[in-house]
Design goal:
With 374 residues, this protein is mostly helical. The chain is built from 18 helices and three strands. A hairpin with a 5-residue loop joins strand 2 (40-41) and strand 3 (47-49).
Length: 374
């Protein structure tokens, strides 16, 4: 990729100007005050523009990301954006944000579970009964923001026309974030226990010494498969319905939670779901929050039981959130949402696109390009 462009023209007519016009302090070569023409003087005395994102539009477009990276205009023109890692960071800024957002989410949540579970019965704790209880876990998992959830991302691709090309890289970033966070929690809470209580500590529910529940969710023994699925489905549907309600500026009434209040609103939403729907299955409601840490627990020695426990429950936190979030989003759009981009506000609820999928995909991509989304 080109690393710099001349702020002034490069035509033959400019090259043939008199020597006074070629001087670095000539009027035509002076940096302008307009941010869109920001420039700096290089070591050769030439005025050079360095808008890094202009060179990365194609790369970001291939990933389904917005061509213009979310970066301050002044930073975009800065000289430090010319080295390879700076350009990589700009090209993948949103996926990096999803990785670290999911990392923090799982780090706080798993650490809260670990502290409550491993400190149970500690007489040195306030009340002489451990450091925290079930409500402590709900507070820990209330941390939220961005997408951080493949099911929410999927629903936005279906109902809000988010570019599908964005889905794979966000999914990978979120899964890796959960996986790495679980590794950090394991290293902090579990790895040192081996020398005290032996390898039996690495067991899976319903074992009395099980610690696998620190990393991912496991159902109560009495639940049927359909009961497990419905519990996750309902919680996920509530999650998506309320997210759409919070983000819908056309239906905000006297109070808007879509701006600065949105993270706090999401905190109490997830806290409420945990308090009301959490006991039976652990309210995963998020593939990245469950599958990534489950994979880590398998990698560090918890064995194949992490997949077979609860009558092979592991697939439910993967599938049910997608089904539940899509249902919750459709429910909101059918009864409350008035925006034009939703399939629910198109003739026959968008069923026409099913009869002409190629044309529908082409029309959607053309519109996204026209809107500058890809």
């Amino acid at each position: 990729m080109a690393t710099a462009q001349m702020a002034t023209g490069t035509s033959d007519s400019i090259a043939s100007k008199s020597s006074r016009d070629d001087h670095p302090n000539a009027l035509g070569n002076l940096p302008t005050a307009s941010p869109s023409n920001a420039a700096y003087m290089n070591e050769n005395g030439q005025t050079t523009a360095t808008k890094t994102t202009s060179d990365l539009k194609q790369t970001r477009g291939m990933l389904g990301l917005h061509p213009q990276a979310p970066i301050d205009e002044e930073h975009d023109y800065a000289e430090q954006q010319e080295w390879w890692w700076a350009r990589t960071r700009i090209a993948l800024r949103e996926p990096f944000a999803e990785f670290f957002g999911t990392f923090i989410l799982v780090l706080f949540g798993d650490a809260a579970v670990a502290q409550v579970l491993l400190s149970a019965g500690q007489t040195s704790a306030p009340g002489a009964d451990g450091y925290g209880n079930y409500q402590s876990i709900n507070w820990g998992w209330g941390d939220s923001g961005a997408y951080l959830n493949p099911a929410v991302l999927f629903t936005n691709c279906v109902l809000r026309k988010l570019p599908w090309r964005r889905f794979p890289i966000y999914l990978i970033a979120e899964l890796l974030g959960g996986f790495v966070a679980a590794g950090v929690v394991y290293g902090n809470y579990i790895s040192g226990i081996n020398s005290v209580e032996g390898p039996g500590i690495r067991t899976v529910p319903p074992s009395k010494t099980a610690t696998a529940g620190i990393f991912c969710t496991y159902p109560q023994e009495f639940l049927s498969t359909s009961g497990m699925f419905m519990d996750e489905f309902i919680a996920s549907a509530v999650l998506m319905f309320v997210i759409y309600a919070l983000k819908d500026d056309s239906n905000k009434g006297q109070f808007s939670a879509s701006g600065a209040w949105f993270p706090l609103s999401m905190f109490f939403l997830v806290f409420g779901i945990g308090a009301c729907f959490g006991w039976q299955t652990g309210y995963a409601i998020n593939m990245a929050r469950d599958f990534g840490p489950r994979l880590m627990s398998y990698a560090v020695g918890y064995g194949s039981e992490v997949w077979s426990a609860g009558n092979y429950y592991f697939w439910i936190p993967i599938v049910a959130p997608f089904c539940g979030c899509l249902f919750g989003g459709i429910l909101y759009d059918v009864f409350l949402y008035t925006g034009p981009e939703s399939l629910m506000n198109q003739p026959w609820f968008g069923a026409k696109d099913l009869t002409r999928p190629r044309a529908a995909v082409r029309d959607r991509m053309e519109k996204q390009r026209a809107d500058g989304l890809v």
